Amino acid sequence: MSIFVRAFAWLLAAAVTLATLGPPGLRPHSDLGQDGEHALAFILVGLAFGLAYRQRRLAVAAASVVLIGLLELMQFWAPGRHARLEDFLVDAGTACIGFALAAVADWVMTRFRENSALTG
After folding, report:
1. Gap between the Cα atoms of 59 and 67, Å rounded
2. Disulfide check for 72: which of 7, 80, 88, 104 has CB 3.0–4.6 Å away?
3. At what angle do helices 33-52 and 2-21 cross, to 10 degrees?
4. Which positions ≥6 away from 17 have C-beta within 8 Å?
5. Dihedral in degrees, nearest 10, Cα atoms 74, 81, 97, 103
6. What is the signed CA dihedral for 82, 88, 89, 93, rounded to 10 degrees?
């Protein structure tokens, strides 16, 4: 199962990278607005990587924030793209929320397993 979650996390990261650095016309658009789209994308990235790398969640979260910053800076060299501090803050913040949600999901599942082992 872990290999599938890791593969999904990396595919999601590749898709977000393509959407971030690719031509603006190829980026998907929704009714969420720019901040909403960024928040949704990066909360999913944080959640996926948080579930994929449970044992090193804090280190992976820290590396993610650094890489999100680099991704934002790389937009200076991508035609038609622009780097903004607001985008970095939304992206990094929501990725961290995704990591926190992964930790909560792990905690809930652990408690559920413990309780079902006691009653079963």
Report:
1. 12
2. 88
3. 150
4. 71
5. -50
6. 140
Structure tokens at 77: 């060299």
Tokens representing 22? 């690719």
For residue 32, give the 3-state DSSP assignment: coil
Of the candidate ranges 11-15, 19-23, 56-60, the one whose mean pLDDT is the lowest:
19-23
Q: Which tens digit of pLDDT belongs to each residue from 66-81?
A: 999 999 999 998 888 8
Dihedral sign from CA coordinates of 115, 50, 16, 83: positive
Dist. CA 106–CA 70, nearest whole Å: 29
